[in-house]
Design goal:
Helix content is 27%, strand content 35%. The strands form two sheets. The chain has a seven-stranded antiparallel β-sheet with strand order 3-4-5-9-8-7-6. A three-stranded antiparallel β-sheet has the order 1-2-10, with no helix packed on it. With 204 residues, it is α+β, with helices and mostly antiparallel strands.
Length: 204
């Protein structure tokens, strides 16, 4: 299973960054890769999950689940910040990871309308079966963004974690590995039930 996870995440990175970016990611001596920041765990206020984010990121927790938690990189005057968001929903019955992703796609059609899928397939997260999708879309300002989302069912509760950055060669090469690293720290908890699934897109 570990080899399958590595293959899926490698495929997502390859689709997201292209040959040059993958080469940069694999060869830290090349100049585009910045030093990784130390990650610090953030617990959901209702005990439903834990995820770790860089210390310089701004964390917003919602009283509801729209999303339950958002974390944003330091603001830039030129571009929207990178982001990681965690959504969740309690279902009437358990779903498979693929069915979870299918329902997420339906919610995406209602919120962001159109997107281009770059890669998708079975995955694992926190030792649990999951389904991941990498895609390009436009925010309300018309700016092209690139996201990776991972859907993780835990019993009858589903979690959706989305990482988003600018869809440019430099941003994807530098930031996509960091978003993946953050998502991989996710661990589910057993907090109280959540309301219905919010509209889903992929950050700002």
């Amino acid at each position: 299973m570990k080899h399958r996870t590595l293959a899926i995440r490698s495929a997502a990175l390859a689709a997201a960054t292209g040959f040059v970016a993958v080469a940069v990611f694999l060869c830290p001596g090349m100049g585009l890769v910045r030093a990784q920041e130390e990650l610090h765990p953030v617990s959901d206020s209702r005990g439903r999950f834990v995820i770790s984010v860089p210390s310089g990121w701004r964390v917003v927790q919602s009283k509801g689940d729209l999303p339950a938690l958002s974390a944003f990189s330091p603001d830039s005057p030129e571009t929207p910040p990178d982001s990681v968001e965690v959504y969740l929903r309690d279902m009437s019955a358990p779903l498979s990871p693929k069915e979870c992703a299918r329902q997420v796609a339906f919610a995406m059609r209602m919120s962001i309308g159109r997107w281009t899928t770059l890669s998708e397939g079975p995955d694992t997260l926190g030792g649990l079966p999951a389904y991941s999708r990498t895609y390009v879309w436009h925010n309300k300002a018309g700016i092209e963004r690139r996201s990776i989302q991972t859907c993780v069912p835990v019993g009858s509760r589903i979690f959706l974690i989305i990482g988003t950055t600018m869809n440019s060669d430099d941003s994807v090469a530098q930031n996509f590995p960091e978003l993946t690293r953050i998502i991989e720290t996710f661990q589910p908890g057993s907090g109280p039930a959540a309301p219905g699934m919010p509209q889903i897109g992929g950050g700002k």
